[in-house]
Amino acid sequence: MSWKKTSTNNEPLLPPIPTLFKDLTFYILGLSFSETTTLKSTIKSYGGDVAFQLNKNVKFLLTTKEQYEKNCTKIQTAMKLATTEILSKDFIQHCITKRYFSIDFINEFKLVNKELLINEKQSNDNQNNTSSSFESTDSLESILSKLKLEIKQSLLEQQQQQPKSQQQQSQQPQQFNQLELIKNEKKSIKLFISSTFLDMEKEREAIVKYLIPEIRDYCNEKNIDFNFVDMRWGITESKDILKKSTIATCLQEVSNCNYFISLLGDRYGWSSGDEYTESFNLAKIYYPWIDTHIGKSITELEILQATTITPKFNLFYFKNVSATTTTTTTTTTTTTTTTTTTTTTTTKTTEELIESEESIQKLKELKNKISNEKQNKISNFSKVDHLITIIYKDLIERINRDLLTSTNGVISNNNYNNNNNNNNNNNNNNENKSSEDNQNLEVNKNSSYLKSLLKQEFIKNYSFDKLNQFIFGDGINIENSIQSDPKPFLITSSIGVGKSTVLANWVKQLSTSNQIDPKKTLVVCFFIGITANNKNRIELLRQLFSIIKLQYQVSIPLSEDPSSLKEEINYWYGIATKDGRNLIIIYDSIDTIEKGSDETLSEALLDLIPSRYPENVKIVCSCYTDNYEELVQHFQLDKIKHTSILTGFTEQQQILDFSKSYLSIFKKELTPVQIEIIKKFLEPCSSPLFLSSVLGELITIGNYNTLNEKLIMLLSTQSIINFYLIQLSRWESDTTFPKNLVTDIIQLIYLSGNGLYEDEILSILNLKSSFGFFSQCRNLFTVFGGGSNYFTILSPYLKLTIGLKYFGNKKDGQLLPIESKLLSNLINYFENQNNSSSSSSSSLSSSTSLKRKIDYLPKILILIGDKSKLQEFLLNIENINQLSKSEIGKSQIHQYWNFIGINNDNFKEIINLYKFKWAQYCNGNPPLEELATTTFNIGSLFEHLSMYDEAYTFIEKSQDYHIQLYGDSHSSVANDLKHLISINIKRSKFDQAGYQSEKLLTITEQLFGKEHLGTIESLLLNGLTFKKQTQYSKSLEFYKSCLKIIYRFLGYNQSNIFIEETNINNNNNNNNNNSKEDLNSPIYFNIKLGEIFQSIADIYRKLGKFDIALNYYNKTLIIFKNLKKETHHCFSELYKNLGLVSKKVGNYQIANEYYEKSLSIVENNYGKDHVEYGFILCDLADTKRKQEQYIEAENLYNQSLDILKRKLNQETSIEIAEIYNDLGLIRKKQSNYKEAISFYKQSISIAQKSLGKLHLKISFFNLNLADCYRKIGDYKTSEQFYSKCLLITQDNLGYDHIEVAEILNSIGLVYKKQGKYQQAENQYKRAIIIVNKSLGSDNYKNGIYMNNLADIYRKLGSYEMAKTYYNKALLNIEKALGKEHSEYAEVLYCLGLLKLSLEEYQESIKLINQAITIVSNHFSPQHVKIGIFKNSLAEVLITQGKSLPNPREFASNHQEINTIRSLFDSSLSILKTEFGTEQHPEIADIFINMAEFEFQFGSHSKSLEHFKKALEIISIVFDENHSKYQLISDRIRYF
User: Is pTM, for the whole model, over 0.90?
Assistant: First the structure.
C-alpha cells in the first residue's frame, strides 16, 4: 500500500499536515521492513511519533488482523495497557485521506474492543463470586499515575516559588554524623484503617492492592518508615472466629498509630453478644476508659481511641448510602444470565448485611457526631476509584506538610532540584547520586537501629567512664588525646547482655556532651549484621569512605577495586581529620563480619582496621566473649585501658529500673505484685535480652486471664532459648491463625537468611493477610524495636532455637519437604521480580526489588543445588548488569560459575555467551543511557576476569554511548577512560594509554578545576603511562603535581615537599634519624602518599639520581611499616626497588639483602613457583630492556620463562602471544605491515602450541594477519587466512555470531578486489542477515555491508539494485552515525561512482566532492580515503570530457587537463605517504588511470612510463597470471 497521497492528472499532490497526529505516539507491529519504514516516515511527516518499544505512552498499536490473531507477547502487553488501542494499519491512510483526525475514526479501525472484553471479564468475575471486581482497575492505576505526576509537579512549583533563602536552606547536604542524626526524631508513619467488614470488602481490597503500595513507595523515596495496620483482615463477624482479645488488639494498634482512617458505610459493627462482652471485659483491663462505653461497636471504640484518647491525624470517609442500597437491594428480575447471577449473590449479601434498628440508629448518631466536630476531615464517596483518589491526595498532602517540610530539604534535594543547568554541577550530581542514595539508606538504617536501642535505657556504669577516658584522655576535648600507638577500644559480652545498647546510649551521651564539637567530630556507627551489605568488610570500607566523602563534600570518586579500596583507608582518614577534625568509628559485633573459608578473624580485620592510624581517629569495637582473647592479642590491647567486659545486671534495682524504663515506652507499668514476681526470677533476669524479651511479650495481647499468670509463665522458662520455644509453641497453638501460617512464616524468615519485608512474606506464601500474626511477632523479628515492616533474625539464640525446633531432624546434605517447598516459593518469588517489580502490589521500588533478587536468589539456588536455574540467572542481562556494578558482585559471578562447574580454563565459553546475550539485549533498542551503563558493567566484568580485549571493546562502546549522551566532558566518560587506560597498560599499549590519559586529565580538570584533589587519579595515570614510555621527566611532573595537591588539600606543611632533593647530601646517611614529631606526622599514615613517593622514587632511579630515589623509597618504607605488616606483598616491590638503588650506588651486599627480602615476601604470599613470582621477574626484565641492560634482562626473562613453563606446563604462555599480537596491532596502526605480519606469525605460532589450532584466540590472530595481507594487496594469502579465521570462529561462536559477519564482510572485500563478484555478493548478503538477527536492522554495520553489496551490483551493471541498496545504506548510517561520519562519506562516494556509470557526471562530481569534504573534516586532508576519492574524481572528469560531442574541445581545455593531472598527483602523493610504499594495488590503479589519460590527451611517453610502473607493482603484489597484469601487458605491446 502507498501511504502518501499521490497526484493524478486531475488532482495536485497535497502537502502533509504537520499537526494531524500531533502528540500521538504509535507503535508498528508485524509489517515488512519497507512498509514499516514508509509508515514511520509518513506518521512523522504528519506530526506523530513512533516508539521503538511498547510502553504506556503509546496511544495506538498499528498492525494487521492476522498479526493480532497470533496473540503474540506484544499484543498481550498492549491488552494490559489501559491507554493503548489496537488498530488496523489502514487507520493512518484513512486519516490522511480525510485530512483530519477524529476520535470517531478509532472505533471503525479497532481490531479489538478492550472495554467490552474488560466488562465481560468483570461479569465473569462476578459470576465466579470473586472479590476483586470493582469499577475499573486499569482506570484506577491510570488515575493514581496521573495523580503522582500532578503532585510532583505541584511540589516542584512550590519549591520554585520559595524565596531564594528558603531554597538554599532546603538544599542543605544530607547529614551523616551520628552525633547530629541521633538528635533528630525518626520520621515514621503508622497508618490504621478502620471499617466494618462485609460492606467494605471491595474498598479494603482496593486500598491494600492499589493505595498502600503507592503510599509506601512515596514514603520509601522520602526515607520515611511506613507501616500499615488493617485489623479488618482476619477479623470477620462470624462467631466461629471472634476471639476475646479482638477489641484489645485493635485498640492497641490504634493507640500505636499516628495516622487513622475510618471508612463508614451501612453497618455499625459488632456491639453485642457473649463474645463481645468477654472481649470487652478483657480490653477494659488494658483500656479502662472504655468502661463507660459498653455496647458501642468495635468500630466506634476505635474512632474514640483515635479522636479523644490518643488523638491522631484522622480522616473519615462516608460511603454514599443510596449508592450502596442500589447495589445491595436490587431484586429486579432480568432476562440476562449475568444479572440473574448477580441478583442471587446480592440477595445473599443483603441478608448478611441486615442489622437491628438499634444498630442503624447508633450508626446514624456516630456519623452525626463525627460530622459535628469541625476538626474532622470528612469526605463522601460512592465508587471505589473515587475513594482511593481522595485518600491518596489527603495522605500525600498531610505527609508533605507534617513530615517533609522539616527534614533538611529531602524533597528538594533528592527529587525536585531539577533547575540547575550548570554542567559541572550536573556532572557531579550524576556521579554522586547513586553513592549518596546508597549511603543515605545505610546510614539511616544504622541510625534507626541505634535509636531503637535507646528505648532500652541502659544504666550508666564504668564502661561509659572508660570509653570517655579513651576518647577524651585527661583533657577537656578530643584533640588533647594524643597517643603514639593508637589502639581501638573493645567492649565484650555474652549474647544478649547489651553491648549494642551500651554503645547506642554512649553515642547519645556524646551528642549531649559539651566536651565534643559535632562540627569538628564525625561519628560513624556500624551495627554489623542489620543489613546484608554491612557484614562484608569491603562494603564497610566503602560505606565509611562514602560517608566521609559526602559529609565533607569531597568530589573524589571511590576506587572500585577492593585492593585499592583497602589501600586508601588512611587516605580517607586523612580527609576526615583534616584541619583538626576528629573521627570516631564504632563497629558493633565486629566479630560477625564475613570471613573467607580459610581465614581467621584477625586476618579479616586487617582490611578493616589498620595496624597504625592517626591519633585523632578513635575506633570502638564490640565482640562476643568467645572472640575476646583473640582480638586482645591481635590489637595488642591493654585490658585495663582498652577493654570493657559487660556482665549484664548485677543488682536487683538495675533489673527493676530497666523494667520500669522499658514498659514506660509503651505507657505501661508493673504492679507491686508483678514486681515481687520478678524478684523471684532474678537470675534469668540478669540477662537484658531475656528480660526485654519477657517484657516485650508481656505487652502483647494474648489468651491469658491475668497478666500475672502470663508473667509467671514467661519467667519460668528461665533461659532465652526456652522462652523462644514457649513463644513459638504458643503462636502455633493459637487458633486465631490459620493452620500452618505461623510455622510457614517463621521458617520462611529463617530460610531467607537476611530477612524479608511483610508484603514479600505474604506474596511468597500466597497470603492476603497475616491475620494479626505480624503484630504479635514484630517485637521478636524486627530490627527497629517493633516499628519496622522488615522481619529478620538478629539474635543468635532465636536463630538457634528455630533451627533446632524446625530443622533439628535434618540429615546432612538433605532438605526437609517443608524446606524444599519454602525455598521453591522463595525462588519463584524472586524469579518473578522482573515481572512484578513495576506492579503496584509491591512495596519496594523496582531497583530495590532487583537488588534483593540479586542478593537472595543465587544463594538459595546454591543451597538447593539447582545449577540449571543458577545458570539462567547468571545469563540474565539485568542480573549480570546489577552484579557487575561492584567488585564484590563480579567476584560473586566468578564464584557462582565455579559452583556450576565453569573454571578459568573454560571461562571463555561464558564470555562468549555474555557477548551474545548483550547483542540480543541491544536488539531490544534499550534507552541509550541504560545501554551505556549495561555495556560498561559487562566490560568491567570482563576486565575483572582478565579478559582485557573483550573488556576494552565493551568499555570503548560505553564511552561512545556516554559521549553521545553527555558530551566529552562528563564524569561517566572520565570513568570509561580510567578503565580503558588501565586495560591498555596491562596490554602494553602505552601510546594509546598515553593519549587517553591526556584526554582524561583534560576532562577531570574541566569537572573539578585544575590542581583539585579530584584530578589526582588522572595525574597518576598520566605519570604511569609516561613512565612506561620511558618519558621520565614528564612522568615526574605529574607525580609532583599530585604531591602538591594532596599536601595543600590536607593542610600538610608544603615547605617540606621536595626539601630532600636540595638537602640530600645533609641527610643522605641519616635517613632513619627522623624526629619523633616527623614520624607522627599524618604524612606517614597516608597510603596514597606512599604510592606516589614510590612512583617518584622509581623515576629518579631510572634517571640515575639514586640519592633522591633512596630518600623517597625510605619515606615509602616508613608509611608501609606504619600501615602494613612487613609480610604484605606491597613490600616486595619496594624492597626490589631499594635493591636496585643500592646496587647502583655500589652497595651490592645491601642490594642482595633487599632482593632476598623481596623474593621471600613473594614466596610467602604466593610461593616460589607461583606465576606471580615469574611475572615480577618479567616486569623487572622489561624495565631492564628499556634501560638497554640486555644481559641482565635476558637472565631475568629466562628465570621468568622457566617459572612459567613449570607453572603452566608449557613452553610459554598465552600472555606472551598476546604481547606479540599487541605489538602487531601497534605496527599495523603505523602502516608498518611487514613488521606487523612478523609479530602476528609469532603470536599465532605460540598460541597454537598452547591452545591448539582451532582455539578462538587463533581466529582473532588470523583475522589481524589477514587484514594486513589485504592492505598490502596480497589477496590470495589474505583469503587463506580469512578462511581459517571463518572456520574457527563459526566452530566456536556459531554461524550467526556478529564476529562471523565481520569476517564475511572482509572476505567479500577480498573477492571484490579480485573481481569475484558473485562470491562477494553471497558473503555480503549473509553478513547482512547475521547483523539483522544479532544487532537489529538499525545497526550501522548494516549500512556498511549494504554499501558493499550495492558496490557489487554497480560493478555487475545492476544499477537499479545498486541504487536501492546505496539509499538504504545512506539512511541507515545517517540514523546511526550522522551525516558527518566517514562511513556516510563512503556511501556518498560509491553513489558518485554509480552516477558515473549512469553518465550523470555533474551529480557524480558533486557527491564525490561532498565525500572528500566530510572525510577531510572527520580525519585530515591527507587521509588515505582522500587519495582514493581524488583518483575517482579525476576519472569522472575524464569520462565527462570524452562524452562531449567534440572531444577535441576537452583536449584543448588546458585548465581542465591540469586539474585532472593535479588530482592524480595529489592522490598518488597521499597514498604513497599513507601506505609507506609504492607496492600497493591502489597505487597501481592510479598509474593505470594516469597512463590512459596521457595516452588520449597528453604525452605517449608519459603514458608508457605509467603503464610500466603499474605493471611492476602488479607483478610484485600479485603475479603474472593476474588479469590486470595481462591487460597492462597488452596495452604496453601496443606502443
Answer: no
Distances (CA, A) of 38 to 45, 87, 305, 1340, 1364: 11, 18, 68, 19, 14
Neighbouring residues of 1228: CB distance < 8 A, sequence distance ≥ 6: 1236, 1264, 1267, 1268, 1271
Given a contact cutoff of 8 angstroms between Cβ atoms, the answer to whether 887 and 944 are in contact is yes
Instruction: Check whether 1402 has a pLDDT greater than 90.
Output: yes
Q: Is the C-alpha dihedral spanning 598, 600, 601, 605 positive or negative?
A: negative
Q: What is the per-residue burial (b if ≥16 Cβ within 10 Å, else e) of 1082-1106?
A: bbbbbbbbbbbbbbbbbbbbbeebb
Closest to 1269 (Cα-Cα) out of 1205, 1215, 1220, 1314: 1314
End-to-end CA distance of the chain: 60
Beta bridge partners, 1057, equal none
Encode 1360-1398: b = buried (16+ Cβ within 10 Å), e = exposed: eebbebbebbbbbbbebeeeebbbbbbbbbbbbbbbbee
- The residue-averaged pLDDT of 1031-1048 equals 86
584 in helix, strand or coil? strand
Distance CA 822, CA 829 (A): 10
How many other β-carbons are positioned within 10 Å of the β-carbon of residue 1534? 9
Q: Is the pLDDT of residue 1387 over 90?
A: yes
pLDDT for the residue 662:
78
pLDDT at 58 over 50: yes
Three-state DSSP at 523 gives: strand
Q: At what angle do helices 720-733 and 741-752 cross, to 10 degrees?
A: 140
Average pLDDT over residues 1052-1059: 62
Determine the pLDDT at residue 596.
66
Stretch (H or E) spanning 489:
strand 489-493
**Which band of pLDDT confidence, cut at 50, 70 and 90, is reported for residue 286?**
confident
Distance (Å, whole) CA 878 – CA 835: 12
Give residue 183's pLDDT band: very low, low, confident or very high (50, 70, 90).
Answer: confident
CA–CA distance, 1286 with 83 (Å, rounded to integer): 49
Angstrom distance (rounded) from CA 978 to CA 235: 61
More confident residue, 189 or 1481: 189
Cα distances (angstroms) measured from residue 84 to each of 23, 65, 79, 420: 14, 16, 8, 35
Question: DSSP characters for 92-129?
Answer: HHHHHHHTS--HHHHHHHBS--HHHHHHHHHHHHHHTT
Q: d(Cα 544, Cα 546) in Å, to the nearest integer?
A: 5
Q: Determine the angle formed by the axes of helices 1481-1497 and 1454-1475, rounding to 10 degrees.
A: 160
